[in-house]
Design goal:
Pathway: Plant hormone biosynthesis; gibberellin biosynthesis; Hormone biosynthesis. Its cofactor is heme. It comes from Liquidambar formosana. Keywords: Heme, Iron, Membrane, Metal-binding, Monooxygenase, Oxidoreductase, Transmembrane, Transmembrane helix. It is found in: Membrane. There is one protein chain. By secondary structure, this protein is an alpha+beta fold. It has one domain (about 65-495): Orthogonal Bundle (Cytochrome p450). It has 17 helices and twelve strands. It has helices at about 5-45, 65-75, 80-90, 110-120, 130-135, 145-160, 160-185, 190-210, 215-230, 240-265, 280-285, 295-325, 330-345, 355, 360-375, 405-410, 450-465; strands spanning about 95-100, 100-105, 125, 190, 380-385, 390, 395, 400-405, 465-470, 480, 485, 490-495. Strands 1-2-8-5-3 form a five-stranded mixed beta sheet. Strand 10 and strand 11 (about 485) form a beta hairpin. Helix 9 (about 215-230) runs antiparallel to helix 10. The N and C termini lie far apart (about 100 Å). The model has no long low-confidence stretch (mean pLDDT about 90).
Length: about 500
């Protein structure tokens, strides 16, 4: 090799090394800039207030903390998301983050959660725009405090009132008995899927009296797709969960619009004095100025209520049945209570009464413990109307506040061995304000909570007395989004007892 050629090799290696160092340095510089972008854009503009923000990390532009959130909730340990904040920043109970496209404050302590949920002067609904697009801007989650109060006043008695619950009981009871008997003859079923169909049929009856089997199946399928997009990143591109959910929303609106049109047509010119169902109530309600709800408002209320009215009931009923079957001592105690109710009723009485349901003290503890352990809605969203001070930290005006129910319910200082199912922990125990939030708190507490607990109680009454659940894949993995469920939707057989109690 010539001397000149030997000299060129070190020079080429030198240039390559410099180039690699420059590229590596550029990557590090870009990474540093991107990691600080949200800080520059959202925190620096706060001026001196930024020094009183809670500890935390706003993550990368646009994405923020969403990848770590989704990674945790798609793993076997969803609580690792908040645990990471605790490990990095200490157990402050309040952290800054960038979630669902907005700078956010996550609150995880009972005191902070209660304050955010009950202080309507300081906080308003703050659901992500992507969620509002799916559930409806005119639904309970999107409307103002005054509008919410008016609609809640309208729907409270027809959904949760004593008279209404007494009326619904017979329909719920007949539906439950029929469903259990049918499932016992079907062999292998997806228990969760069948429960969701059952609870959907019940909420459809309450709001729309009745619809064809085809309409109910079509609506239930669309709601399944809708729910998968509620907690997803709002990417409206083919293949993404949010894109599919938007299509489901469009189909739901079209179906409900046809139902509203048909109901208006039926009512035209008729002197209707008795409200048949919630649809009639929504069509008739008017404010102090005589303004009635328009079609968009009615449809958004329907979308929200029919969704919440069957999702939570179906999932919690499944988990209560699973937990009881997995814990024979709790199963027998709950069953003995139900047998006692049957034994003490008059011989001429047919079916359950609301009074009997309210005597199910131990079963109520079973449901409360299931609601705590599963936490069907692990987070709700608020937005600060002005700068708010909580626990010595500033929540800036316009920032979202994520009330993280799951952290409260899984706090070992509040609930010893929080991952254990133990209904007996509720004996003689009255939770302090903010420590038990299955239906939220404050003026925006879930409006259908009493109806949901009634449905679950009636189902468990007949299940405990007459049936057993045999899971086919008891060790199958869980999914945590949008709700905690087995990946096989609880593939199981329902077996009728040879000597049923009723």
């Amino acid at each position: 090799m010539a001397p000149s050629q030997r000299a060129e090799i070190p020079m080429e290696l030198g240039f390559a090394s410099v180039f690699l160092v420059a590229v590596f340095g550029g990557i590090l510089a870009l990474q540093w800039v991107l990691s600080r972008a949200n800080w520059w854009f959202y925190e620096v503009q706060l001026g001196e207030k930024r020094f009183s923000l809670p500890p935390g990390d706003l993550g990368w532009p646009f994405i923020g903390n969403m990848w770590s959130f989704l990674r945790a909730f798609k793993s076997s340990n969803p609580d690792s998301f908040i645990s990471t904040f605790v490990t990095r920043f200490g157990r402050t109970g309040i952290y800054k983050a960038f979630m669902f496209g907005s700078p956010s404050i996550i609150v995880t302590t009972p005191e902070a959660c209660r304050r955010v949920l009950t202080d309507d002067e300081a906080f308003k609904p703050g659901w992500p725009s992507s969620t509002l697009e799916l559930i409806g801007k005119k639904s309970f989650i999107g409307i103002s405090y005054e509008e919410h109060k008016r609609l809640r006043r309208l729907t409270a008695a027809p959904v949760n009132g004593h008279e209404a619950l007494s009326i619904y009981m017979r329909y719920i009871e007949d539906s439950v008995k029929s469903a259990l008997d049918k499932w016992a003859s079907m062999g292998q079923i997806e228990f969760l899927t069948e429960l969701r169909k059952l609870t959907f049929r019940i909420i459809m009856y309450i709001f729309l009296s009745s619809e064809s089997e085809q309409v109910m199946e079509a609506l239930e399928r669309e709601y399944t797709m809708l729910n998968h997009g509620v907690r997803a990143i709002g990417i409206n591109l083919p293949g993404f969960a949010y894109h599919k959910a938007l299509k489901a929303r469009k189909n739901l609106v079209a179906i409900f619009q046809s139902i509203v049109n048909e109901r208006r047509k039926q009512r035209a010119g008729s002197a209707l004095t008795v409200k048949k169902d919630m649809m009639d109530a929504l069509l008739d309600v008017e404010d102090e100025n005589g303004r009635k709800l328009n079609d968009e408002e009615i449809i958004d209320v329907l979308v929200m209520y029919l969704n919440a009215g069957h999702e939570s009931s179906g999932h919690i009923t499944m988990w209560a049945a699973i937990f009881l079957q997995e814990h024979p001592e709790f199963f027998q105690r709950a069953k003995a209570e139900q047998e006692g109710i049957i034994k003490n009723r008059p011989p001429t009485q047919k079916g359950l009464t609301l009074k009997e349901v309210r005597q199910m003290e131990y079963l109520s503890k079973v449901i409360d413990e299931t609601l705590r352990l599963i936490t069907i809605s692990f987070v709700v969203f608020r937005e600060a109307k002005a700068d708010v001070n909580i626990s010595g930290y500033t929540i800036p005006e316009g920032w979202k506040v994520l009330v993280w129910f799951r952290s409260v319910h899984m706090d070992p200082e509040i609930y010893p061995d929080p991952k254990e199912f133990n209904p007996s922990r509720w004996e003689g125990y009255i939770p302090k304000a903010g420590t038990y939030l299955p239906f939220g708190a404050g003026t925006r507490t879930c409006p259908g909570n009493d109806l949901a607990k009634l449905e679950i109680s009636i189902f468990l009454h007949y299940f405990l007395l007459n049936y057993q659940l045999e899971r086919l894949n008891p060790g199958c993995p869980l999914r945590y989004l949008p709700h905690t469920r087995p990946t096989d939707n609880c593939l199981a057989r329902i077996r009728k007892l040879s000597s049923p109690s009723v």
